[in-house]
Amino acid sequence: MAERRFVTIDGNEATANIAHLTNEVAAIYPITPSSGLGEMPDAWAAAGRKNIFGSVPLIVEMQSEAGAAGAVHGALQAGAISTTFTASQGLLLMIPNMFKVAGELTPTVFHVTARTVATHALSIFGDHSDVMACRTTGWAMLCSASVQEAQDLALIAQAATFESRVPFIHFYDGFRISHEVNKIEQLTEDDCRAMLDMQRIHEHRARAMNPERPVLRGTAQNPDVFFQARESCNRFYQAVPGIVQKVMDRFARLVGRQYHLFDYIGAPDAERVIVLMGSGVGVVEEAVERLRNEGQKVGLVQVHLYRPFDAKAFVQALPKTVRRIAVLDRTKEPGALGEPLYLDVTAALAEQWTEQVPGTPMPLVIGGRYGLSSKEFTPAMVKGVFDELARPNPRRHFTVGINDDVTHLSVDYDPHWSTEKEDVVRAVFFGLGSDGTVSSVRNTCKICGENTPMYAQAYFVYDSRKAGSVTTSHLRLSPRPIKGSYLIHSANFVACHQFQFLDRIDMLSLAEPGATFLLNSPYGPDEVWDHLPMEVQEQILKKNLKFYVVDAYRVAREAQLGVRINTVLQVCFFALSKVLPLEQAVQEIKDAIKTTYGKKGGGAIVEKNFAAVDGALKALHEVKVPGRVTSKTHVVPPVPAHAPAFVKEVLGMMIANRGDELPVSKLPCDGTFPTGTTQYEKRCIAQDIPIWDPKLCIQCGFCSLVCPHACIRLKVFDPALLAKAPEGFQAVDYRGKEYPGMKFVVQVSPEDCTGCGLCVQTCPAKDKENPKHKAIDMLPLLEHLHRERQNWEFFLTIPDLDRTKVAQDTVKGSQLLRPLFEFSGACAGCGETPYVKLITQFFGDRMLIANATGCSSIYGGNLPCTPYTTNAEGRGPTWNNSLFEDAAEFGFGFRLAIDQQIDYCRVLLGQLASQLGDHLVRELLENPQEDDAQIARQRQLVAELKRRLQQIDAPAAKELLASADYLIRKSVWSFGGDGWAYDIGFGGLDHVLASGRDINILVLDSEVYSNTGGQSSKATPRGAVAKFAAAGKPARKKDLGLMALTYGNVFVGQISLGANPLHAIRTIRAAESHRGPSLLIALCHCIGWGIDMVQGLEHQKEAVTCGHWPLYHYDPRDEEHPFHLDSKPPKGSFKDFALKEARFAMLARSKPERAEQLFQEAQQDIYARWALYELLAKSGKAAIQAILQGDGDGKTGAPTAQTKKEVEA
Amino acid sequence: MTVDLATQYLGLALKNPLVVAACSLTDHLEKLLQMQEDGASAIVMHSLFEEQIEHEANELQRVYEQGADSFAEALTYFPKIEEFQVGPKAYVDHVAQAKKELRIPVIASLNGVSPGGWLRYAKMLQDAGADALELNIYYIAADLNQTSAQVEEQYLDLVSAVKKAVSIPVAVKIGPFFSSPGYMARRLVEAGADGLVLFNRFLQPDFDLEELRVVPHLELSTSAELLLPLRWIAILYGRLKASLALTSGIHRPQDLVKAILAGADVGMVASVLYREGLAAIGTILHGLETWLTEHQYTSVQQARGALSQAKCPNPAAFERANYMRALISFTSQVR
After folding, report:
1. Which bin fits A228, alpha (ψ -120 to 50), beta or left (φ > 0)?
2. Which pLDDT band holds residue B82 (cuts at 50, 70, 90)?
3. pLDDT tier at B333 (50, 70, 90 boundaries)?
4. What is the dihedral of CA A1127, A1132, A1133, A1136, to 10 degrees?
5. Nearest residue to A907 via CA among A955, A972, A969, A952
6. Which of A8, A12, A23, A32 is catalytic?
7. Is A1011 a catalytic residue?
8. Which of A17, A161, A1011, A1196 is catalytic?
9. Measured between CB atoms, does B59 come within 8 Å of chain A?
10. So what's the ipTM on this one?
11. Can you say how many angstroms the Cα of residue A1096 is from the centroid of all Cα atoms in its chain?
12. Which residues of B touch A1093 (CB under 8 A)?
């Protein structure tokens, strides 16, 4: 048998490995934090890795989790061993099929990374609210509490499901286990074979639907028999606990790790016991160990098999001395008598205690909630719970880990109480997403875990922005297995990989006295001290920290590694922490470099990294700390003093990473937040920012149009305002006839800019004498920050132009309108946000947005600060995110409400017409509200209406007053990505398009699931490599617009800001003006394309030029000529376009022949599509329908593939 | 009368003196087979560009890492694909495949940047079965502090290092831009070069007048470019213990005849194949044979070097006198 080896991997990899080895079919769909569970088997399958049965598992992505569950259900019924992976809302979408799978007694294991179900807000983090929602499905539920268990119980579940015929949910905590890297003993293929009873698998196959021995399932049953039939499964459920324990015992004999349905850990004579499951177990275990050492009689029961709940086994697991039990649930069920585990424990004791422990009173049971949405759960909190249990009258129901100052349920605890051991290396690293900190810590963890006897654990915390995001990496190295799954609060090593963080992040609060502090500093050991903020100096002195500096950027630069400082800082960690002899550490790092880069042909990358390793040691210096504070600067407050109170008191705390300290009372009870809060968070993340040269500027507005973060803006204004301008504020005469005598300015917000460079890239105005100089250039932030900050502040005081007088359907005109979407956390150079911003410029003051979950909901609504904002009058978009799948229906609901309210207003106006005045009523009802002037007029009328209504004492007047705002024309939008529109939300989108109602749908088509990390969608082009399409997507991109065209009354526009901004502007405006459904499909470049993001607009242009993304619009108001093909015929080859993007080029590198074939097919797709569109462009409305429906004389069906010649002719 | 077209190049016995020069047409196996069919006596594969490989590896890595580990939901954006053929593998496989399928010799071509790269890839190409190696040294000495001697030393060190690393014959393809090309040629041969390929044509930057940008540009050669290599082949013929290949400007049969008369062991073609298709190989060979026949040569060997500086009736024509005379005749014509 193959030897087992120790590996250092995360919970998802540990689980995916077992799932891959023991399954034949997986139907998958991405959802955080489970996506990796499907991605790994998909990539392994693409590389031909086999399961233990000798076949390569079929990994198939579906359109939604509901689809995945249906496909798995089918695969199971047809006799395959099948699985899926999911979490949260995804699991909820599987519930209907799960009832069926269990009802049919079908063995399968679904692996679930337990994640919060969205309620007042979405959360991607971990708790048990999703799996608890499945309690009624009839699935067994097995819970893992660590990375090791995630692997082991994955296999135990797989074996038990076949032996019991009951399907299993195998779950573990999202992020805390799914993403925690830990050292585990990896099971071998032989272990998997030894654990699975092939006879049971053959029985599963024998039960499969097979026309050779046909059966019928899925009958409809009536009151006469359904009930009895439902009870017929009981004996299978009764057998499950015994089977699971038997399998656990077999596992123990094979591998040596013994699990039980319920494992008791603690004092044999414990009086106080905590019951829980999941990653909190290790935390409680640490606390119990310390409390026992202090003489306390405490213990814990870890629940492994939660369903079927074996009451007898549970009570048997308890020490008979127990007097009080606290049950901890990682979920919340508002209105319930208690959370699920609490209720189960209570019922189990009621049923079993007296029977098993006669004569002893049943222990007191209290129930508490902890750790919702991955809220930290620490040994200190555990002690708080044990202390609560020790009180004379402990609360029956409580929470722990928060401060509930409203209902006062939270137990108190001493946050400084710690179980950390002295001999454990506890290191925390602060880095930027782009600097490689996370990968270096992950790598360090692997080196220590796999090459030394030490145990290693790494966990990573990311902030909520995609651009310039701060990462915090927590690393523990210990001589003992590491069970405590909580963040490091007391570190003996703190590394700051970005000097500028010192101004904003209080990282040294984590350092324990005498800890080592490593700072990546442009200043050397002799000068760095005076550059530190006062608060940092104070902590270094107070805690007597050992302080080291390295200029990692210089070392990386000299090694030609650009901004990747990971290698440099990794070496410094080993040099200072001394966890390995330095020579060995250097060798291990070099070996890891070879493994990472060498096989991708990166000989030079290997050499450069080696140079960085060698350079790092020379550049590392200890700082001789002066004995006193010398600094005159302070850390920067999270938000400015002028921010509103809520922003300061709530959002400011979150920005300062102190959100955990906010009490319940500070948070909105229904998830409602103010808009326009990104303006208060100044992040200064750009190295270089655009600086305007008015002498060269041709005032085209492109820079402002394409800026993803609304950081570069235009204004036209009265020169008299310049009197108050700060020195250095630049403005020139406005070019153009519309605003004679006015001034023009282009201004950047230096602290909000991400430095993406799209503006400079798109700027057409070059200096004729020195063409590398443009009307805007990227220049160092530090040199321009002070002046540009002042300029920006003044710029904000300049009033906006009267929008009724702006030529809105031009690039420049559009950019003179104030964006009501600004400074989002989207990626630098994002291809989506310019569209969102543009739409808010046109319609933001009367917009309602229903946003599908995805990138646009994350940059649109992820706390702490959100980008939708208001104009000078306080009007702006109102925004909400329902689910991933239902943004069209959600927006449709907005529309229905508005339409209904307008009708109601009409009725009320009719009733009150005589009192209000016929003229006002008529004008209110007849104003067409087609443009800004008419809408402004309507606002005046509504204001007048309200004034008059207030003077009328009648119920109808009060009613109308409450609804009068509906009389102002609303612009209803559904926003979402291609994953939503093409896949999971397509059914709803289709239905809404068919409704005929006035709703605008914006599909931000990045051709890949961007938010979940690059999985293939049906918008992904043929030949592109994506996750779940690791071998290149074989099918063509779905033509969503064409499908919408078949309705005839839907406005459809396909646009690209990079290729034709004016077309995009006019199509967006035309779509909104259509009083029926409109579908805008916008091309959005994305990191997932594998491009340099600064070139994103160029890539869009090329996509249009080669015909991959034809521009068109279909306006149903035009009977004669509704379809307009707005781009030129395909020019150049798809392959030439494709090879410039890594998503395609990767396939050409990995599977050249397949790539060639798919590229050729994609070329044919282009010709065929173009030929059809040309035909549509020549046809009238009725003829288009005839063509698309394929009726008529048979001559008008869609053409088959055309030759290049025919198309070009 | 049959004419013997056989020749020797880098110690390889070739059936005629027409060799396909390194160009992108050699990317596809079917084209290679067609070249062989049309009569080419050997093929120099398109160059393996170390810089390109490193660039691709760097870019791939950069794209892989872009946005990674920044946001909890999207820690990466691409699947893990272990089998990327970035790097020399695809090229090396192609050489091996060509070697397997072709009867004629396959000469691999290598354009390196770093000393390590040259040696690493040279060995790989030898292991892939290449019959010989052509070092395509493409170096723009844009550093105003670098002396010509330093540049030349780099070339020589490189050749001698590669020679030590491989056992197959090595040709060196150079450009004409040396103060003393003859001296350089001699030094290269002393450093171990088994043959010289004259001359490399560089991709030259061009200007995009609308965008005010500098863009790379490659112009196909014409027969007019033949004269420069022709002169230097003629000068070097008989004076070096190395094979000589003439490349740049062979478009018509007469061009190949001239190359042979100057002293080239082989003439290499590429531009003409882009312009006229692979059939040009047959046309040129046929024309060569016709010319030799008409001029009563029995073999290529017999004609070789007949108009070299060593053998021609007016050797001074290859030196400055020739330049003066051309000037005079040119101005006379104008008058």
Report:
1. alpha
2. low
3. very low
4. -110
5. A955
6. A32
7. yes
8. A1011
9. yes
10. 0.90
11. 22
12. 66
Of A43, A604, A1093, the CB nearest to B80: A43
Which of A1149, A1150, A1154, A1156 is best to mutate for the B interface (most B CBs within 10 A)?
Answer: A1149
- Closest-CA residue of chain B to A765: B211
Q: Of the residues A65, A149, A286, A788, which is catalytic?
A: A65
User: In this structure, which amino acid lies at residue A364?
Assistant: L
E strands, A416-488, where? 425-432, 455-462, 470-478
Per DSSP bridges, beta strands A1078-1083 and A1112-1114 are unpaired
Nearest CA in chain B to A1024: B78
Name the band, by pLDDT with cuts 50, 70 and 90, for residue B81. low
Percentage of chain B beyond pLDDT 90 is 66
Mean pLDDT, residues A702-716 taken together = 98
Residues of B in contact with A1014 (CB under 8 A): 74, 76-79
Contact A1040, A1019 (CB under 8 A): yes
Say yes or no for a CB contact (<8 Å) between A858 and B73: yes
Question: What ranges make up the beta strands (E) of A487-623?
Answer: 491-496, 511-520, 546-550, 621-622
Query: Once rounded to an integer, what is the mean pLDDT over residues A169-197?
Result: 98
Contact A826, A708 (CB under 8 A): yes
- pLDDT tens readout for residues A1122-1171: 999 999 999 999 999 999 999 999 898 888 889 999 999 999 999 999 99
Whether pLDDT at A754 is above 60: yes
Predicted confidence at residue B86, as pLDDT, reads 64
Interface test with B, best of A439, A464, A600 (most B CBs within 10 A): A600
Confidence check: pLDDT of A1205 > 70: no
CA distance A318 to A271: 10
Q: Model pTM greater than 0.90?
A: yes
**Chain A residues within an 8 Å CB radius of B79:** 39, 42-43, 46, 1014, 1025-1030
**Which chain B residues are closer than 8 Å to A601 by Cβ?**
53, 56-57, 84-89
Parallel/antiparallel/unpaired status of strands A1112-1114 and A181-186: unpaired
Q: Does A272 touch chain B (CB under 8 A)?
A: no
Contact between A680 and A423 (Cβ < 8 Å): no
Chain A residue with Cα closest to B114: A604
What is the distance in angstroms between the CA of the first residue and the CA of the last residue of chain B?
47
Exposure of A864 in the CB half-sphere (CA atoms within 13 A): 24
Determine what percent of chain B is predicted with pLDDT higher than 70: 93
Q: Are strands B7-9 and B243-247 parallel, antiparallel or unpaired?
A: unpaired
- Lookup: tokens for A240: 């499950």
Residue-wise pLDDT for A279-337, tens only, equals 999 999 999 999 999 999 999 999 999 999 999 999 999 999 999 999 999 999 999 99
Interface residue B70 vs chain A (CB under 8 A): yes
- Would the pLDDT of A1198 be above 60? no
Phi, psi (rounded to 5 degrees) for B51: -60, -40
**Residue pLDDT, tens place only, A811-837:** 999 999 999 999 999 999 999 999 999
E strand residue ranges, B28-168: 42-49, 106-111, 132-136
Helices and strands (H, E) in chain A, number of each type:
42, 35
CA–CA separation, A269 vs B85, rounded Å?
Answer: 63
Q: How far is A1196 from chain B (nearest CA, A)?
A: 41
Residues of B in contact with A708 (CB under 8 A): none
Q: CB–CB of A1059/A706 below 8 Å?
A: no
Tally the residues of chain B.
335
Mean predicted lDDT score pLDDT of chain A? 95
Does the beta carbon of A9 lie under 8 angstroms from any beta carbon of chain B? no
